């Protein structure tokens, strides 16, 4: 049984979103009292995702999108697998840590069109069948120990998650999240992707809680309330960027794995952004799939900088985001590292 109400986001919201986010097009729903904005495809699998059973030796990576998720997937996999970078290079990132609710980002139209585009490539069709299978089904069949990625907030996941499994939550400064989400949403032809506007307009969607997985602040605050739970590790992306050695040591302790300082320093060097971008497999090297990635030069792994800025980020827009951030932090002790 799924305990939250799911309602249509409404004609005005759907019209506004779909006029800029051209990927798929089934519309959006609002979920629960917080009115989480999620593609309509979610309604078909909400109960399955909510009832997905955590295991005691699971590690869950939970983030609002573009908050260091991929970095932590690779980092945690290596810590759990003897720092075996050679083996890591042979496995794509999605196989290391299934994206629990990925099926909500691809509706029937995308599946049909992509299968049709690749009909003459049997290897691509075989891979697409695996890709289009709901990840919660795939993850349920994995042997222990599992690493699982999700962008969903705590309230939309099993209430047994935190009492059962280890959860690592990564938070990132909203200005960097907005910029990274903006570029990421232009990259894929998925639900709530293939964005065709500018950064200023994207910011309006973000501020109005009309980007996927919004509201951003409620997402963070739910995790923040659990930060002292023994199965919870709350991290800031900014600390992971500025003092990676100390943060990796903290993660290793949380995961109950032991490595020497020299070994951890080698891991820090491996996770340097340019090396990371070149060596971590995001997709199959041998099978080309048409129809999922949009036709431009955006990259899945960007520069990973803190306060990285953007050519479209004007001083006025930057100030507006700063004021919005300060207003939301007023009644909480949550603070982002400088």
UniProtKB/TrEMBL annotation:
A molecular function GO annotation: sulfotransferase activity
Matches recorded under InterPro entries: P-loop_NTPase, Sulfotransferase_dom
SUPFAM superfamilies referenced in this protein's UniProt entry, alphabetically: P-loop containing nucleoside triphosphate hydrolases
Keywords: Transferase
Domain named Sulfotransferase: residues: 56-332
Keyword Transferase: yes
Superkingdom of this protein's organism: Eukaryota
Family as reported in the entry's similarity comment: Belongs to the sulfotransferase 1 family.
PANTHER family (alphabetical): SULFOTRANSFERASE SULT (PTHR11783)
Protein name (record): Sulfotransferase domain-containing protein
Organism encoding this protein: Bemisia tabaci
């Amino acid at each position: 049984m799924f305990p939250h109400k799911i309602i249509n986001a409404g004609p005005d919201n759907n019209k506004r979103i779909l006029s800029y986010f051209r990927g798929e097009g089934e519309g959006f729903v609002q979920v629960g009292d917080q009115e989480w904005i999620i593609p309509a495809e979610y309604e078909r699998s909400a109960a399955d995702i909510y009832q997905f059973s955590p295991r005691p030796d699971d590690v869950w990576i939970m983030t609002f999108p573009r908050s260091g998720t991929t970095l932590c997937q690779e980092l945690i996999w290596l810590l759990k697998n003897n720092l075996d970078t050679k083996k890591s290079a042979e496995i794509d990132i999605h196989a290391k840590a299934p994206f629990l609710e990925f099926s909500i980002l691809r509706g029937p139209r995308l599946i049909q069109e992509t299968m049709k585009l690749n009909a003459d490539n049997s290897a691509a069709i075989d891979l697409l069948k695996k890709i289009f299978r709901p990840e919660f089904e795939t993850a349920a069949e994995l042997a222990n120990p599992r690493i699982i990625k999700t962008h969903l907030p705590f309230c939309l996941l099993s209430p047994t998650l935190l009492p059962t499994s280890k959860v690592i939550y990564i938070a990132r400064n909203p200005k960097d999240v907005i910029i990274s989400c903006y570029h990421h949403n232009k990259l894929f032809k998925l639900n709530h992707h293939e964005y065709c506007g500018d950064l200023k307009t994207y910011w309006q969607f973000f501020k109005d809680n009309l980007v996927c997985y919004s509201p951003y602040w409620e997402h963070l605050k739910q995790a923040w309330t659990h930060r002292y739970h023994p199965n919870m590790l709350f991290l800031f992306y900014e600390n992971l960027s500025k003092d990676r050695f100390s943060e990796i040591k903290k993660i290793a302790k949380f995961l109950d794995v032991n490595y020497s300082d020299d070994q951890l320093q080698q891991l820090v060097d491996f996770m340097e952004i340019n090396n990371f971008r070149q060596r971590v497999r995001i997709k199959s090297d041998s099978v080309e799939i048409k129809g999922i990635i949009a036709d431009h030069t955006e990259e899945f792994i960007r520069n990973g900088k803190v306060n990285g800025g953007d050519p479209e980020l004007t001083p006025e827009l930057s100030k507006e985001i700063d004021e919005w951030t300060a207003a939301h932090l007023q009644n909480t002790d949550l603070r982002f590292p400088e």
